[in-house]
Every structure is written in structure tokens, then in C-alpha cells.
Write a structure and sequence with these properties.
By secondary structure, this protein is mainly α. 67% of the residues lie in helices and 4% in strands. Strand 1 and strand 2 form a beta hairpin.
């Protein structure tokens, strides 16, 4: 699955101003975004969940965590599909192998 990130990154516009971003850096973005989400989960999502459910400060059960993870995975797959459709549309309109869509999309 990680090689797909590199392939998609190679097919997108990898320049910002005069700076070139290598497509292989997508591995690092994956690690950084996962680490950031773990911190957000502990510091934001769990306290918000406890506040909304008005329970004792108990974190979600294992089954609830699995459900939350599946819901987030579904949303991320939908977003990835929409971005891929936009990338393909831009690539087909320009007649080029790479699209004008930025790698940061």
C-alpha cells in the first residue's frame, strides 16, 4: 500500500515555488500524520467523547475503538477516491502523464 503513495506522488506536481519534493517523501508524511493523529486522539477525541457522553472519564471500549477506527478508515478511503478522480481528470485534460494537482492534496 505504501508504494501506491509513491506512485501517486510521482504522477502529481511535485514542485512548490522553486522547491522540488521527492515522491518518496510520502512515506514520511504517512508516519508523521499517523503520529499526529494518535496525539489528537488522546488529547482531543477521547476528552470530547467523554464530555459528549457525560460519563465518568472512561475511554471508549475496545469495540468502540474498533468502530471509530473503521469509520475513520471509511472516510479516508472516500477522500482518497475523490482525490484520485480529480488527479485523473487533471491528467486527462492536459494530456500529460503527470497532473497539475499538487502532491500535498
Amino acid at each position: 500500500m505504501l508504494s501506491l503513495f509513491v506512485e501517486q506522488g510521482a504522477a502529481m506536481d511535485t514542485t512548490i515555488s522553486n522547491f522540488h519534493i521527492p515522491p518518496a517523501i510520502m512515506f514520511a508524511f504517512d508516519i508523521v500524520s499517523t503520529s499526529t493523529f494518535i496525539l489528537l486522539y488522546v488529547k482531543l477525541i477521547i476528552p470530547l467523547y467523554v464530555r459528549l457522553t457525560k460519563r465518568e472519564p472512561n475511554p471508549p471500549s475496545e469495540l468502540q475503538r474498533i468502530g471509530i477506527g473503521i469509520a475513520i478508515a471509511m472516510v479516508s478511503m472516500i477522500v482518497a477516491g475523490v482525490v484520485e478522480q480529480k488527479r485523473l481528470k487533471y491528467a486527462n485534460n492536459n494530456g500529460q502523464e503527470t497532473s497539475a494537482l499538487s502532491i500535498f492534496w
